[in-house]
Every structure is written in structure tokens, then in C-alpha cells.
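Hi X.,

You mentioned you wanted examples for the new student's onboarding notes, showing what a folding record looks like when two proteins sit in one file. Here is a clean example. The first protein comes first, with its sequence line followed by its C-alpha cells.
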Amino acid sequence: METTTSSTTAQIIDKDQLLTHWLGHRKVTRRTLEAFPEKDLFEFSIGGMRTFAQLTKELLAMDGPTAKGLATDEWEAFDEEKTELTTKAALLSAYDDATSTIEKYWKAITMEKFQEKVVAFGQYEGTGYSTLFYIIDNETHHRAQGFVYLRALGITPPNFWEQY
């Protein structure tokens, strides 16, 4: 008698749940950006750290381009200067555009891409998933800096656990 076995790959979350998680972090970061008074967004820092506007520009240089790079293997040059973004409204608009870019390219990222080696921005070498985790971790790190700035300014930051 011949027996056959079937195997399934267990996973913790699926691709769409990962996107929901990433976008949840972005929602909190956007609320953090909204909480800043415009002047302080571009001028306030502590201990020589960059302003939250500068940190946001770094996120903009990475988030949408990472989704596009994972989907197309076309990686933009890393540009965090974004000198055209001189107002809070411009930063918020660019942030929303980056979220749209993530959503647009997400469906084109194959499951295999997460396991492949990639070189993001010509400098970061890792797998697709390690690159994405770096991007999410980097955003969380910079948002935490923004939380410290807001508290120093006497402003209560948004609840980090309200991601969805």
C-alpha cells in the first residue's frame, strides 16, 4: 500500500497582513508628523539629532522606493535631501504619496522576492524581507525620536499602539 503525505508551509502572517502591519506603522508616523507645530518640525532637535522634518525626508527616500525596488528590481538613488519639501503640508503630501506608492507596488512583489538577495539603493545588501524589516524598524526608530521631541515640546505624541 502506497501512502502519500502532503506538506504545507506554516507561516505566521501572510503578505497582506505584513502590508497592514507596515501601513499601521506609517499611520502612527503620519499622526506624529501632524502633531508637530510647523516651526518646530523644521527647527527643533535635541542633542544634535536631526529635526523631525529631516528624519521624515529620510523615510520618504526609503519607504516608497523600497516597495518599488522589491517589485521591479529598479532601485532609485538614495536622496534624503528633498529640498523642495519646505512646509509641513508638503511633507504630509509627500508622505501620503509614498504610502500610495507602497500600496501600488505591493501586489507586484512576489513571495520569492522576500527570500532573494537584493542590494537596496546600491548599498544595503540583504534579502527582500530583511530589507523591508530594516525599513519598518528605521521608521519606528525615527518616530520614537519624534515622540521625544514632541514630549520635550509639551505635546503628547499619538498612541503608538493605535496602528489600525
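Then the second protein repeats the pattern, sequence line and then C-alpha cells:
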Amino acid sequence: MNLALVSGCWLWLGGLALLAPARAVPAAEPDAKHTLDVTRLAFQRSILESSLAPLKKHLSELILLEKSRVEARDYAGAIEARDLRKRLEMELERLDKELLLLQTREQSIAASLLPDRIRLPIDAAVLKDIRREGGALTGWSKPGAAAEWKLGNLPPGGYEVILRYRCSPLEGGVLTVEETRFSLKAEVETTLKGPQEKNLGTLKITEGSGPLKITAQTVLKDNLMHLLSVELVPASK
């Protein structure tokens, strides 16, 4: 392997740190500016990510080269390969930290662009053992009955889950709200004064384009509730 080729990697990587718009961007509305910032950060992150695979390949080659030169008793060559390997390892560590910083900034800006409340449309739910009736989801007659939504590419983070529902004295039970990894459990209580809103707590969402599912765990008698709306409130709001 040509060691000069590996050395040249740092020259190329050094140029990544200089990435910036070629010209000044005209003043924009705050949301438009934040959207542009997210796009720019995503672009920088994609370039850095694309550099990882070839650098890791070079690192593997250097490890093998160092070993082969030691076995051949070419100690000067082994030291040269070792020094390049250590420099490359340091560069990969720096890239990893920079990628984490870019991702954190990207998610923070994306979260600031979210509305105060994110409604999951009743009509968009995929239903299992329940039905739509009069603008509500009802017929939760047994454990396992569920409604599932596909999230709209939300930034990962905490979201308060707020349900609006009706529940008669002969209805109720326990439900869970879950995403890919995390879940909430809550009791569905009788609503004596018409529909009520209940904050179930904060759910950590790890996959913002993944599923969100509400499932009946226990049912008092024939129906868990009449679910009127589901809203997510970003914890940062």
C-alpha cells in the first residue's frame, strides 16, 4: 500500500473543516433560516460520514502492513506504518466527535421548528380490532386491540403524549403507547363531564419516522374508550 496515499487523506479531511457557503445568504425569515441551517448541517454530516469507510479501510491496511513489516524485521518500515496508524486513529476519533456535534446541532434546530402540538390524524391510523365511528376510535373490546401511526420524520427526543377521549362508567382499562424502543402505560379513567384531555407523560422517541402504537392492555367490560385525538408535544416547547 502507498503510505503517501494515506498521508494525503489528512489533507483532504482538513478541507472538510473549511466547508461553508460560497457566498453570503440573504436575510431570511427565522424558520427559513433554521431550515437552511439544518440542510447545511446534514450536508456536512453526509460528507464526513462518507469519509469513514475509506479511512477505516486504510486503517485495516496499516494494521496489516505494520504486522507484516515486523515479521519481515523491517523495523523502520514498521515504525513508519505504526505512526501513520496512530495518526489515522486520532483522526477517526476527531471525526466521530465532530459527527456527534453536528448531529446534536441538527436535531436541536429541527426540534425548534416543530409546532407546539403535533396531531396524529385519526383517519391515518392503522387499526387492529377497533373501528372508526363518529370521528373517534372505539370498539377496543379486548387486550391487544390497537391503533398505529407512522410518525412524520420527527427529530428524536422526548414528547408528551396527550389523548382526548370519552369513557363511560362501564368503560376503561389500561393502555400502552409505544415507539420502536420505549413505551408508556396509563389508566383510562371515566370522564364524567364529557370528553377530557389527559397527559400520559413523556415518551422518548428514538426513530422519528417509525411507528407509534396505542394498545389496550386491559379492558373493564366491552370498550376501553372513545379516542378523539392524539397529540404529541415536544418536551422542548
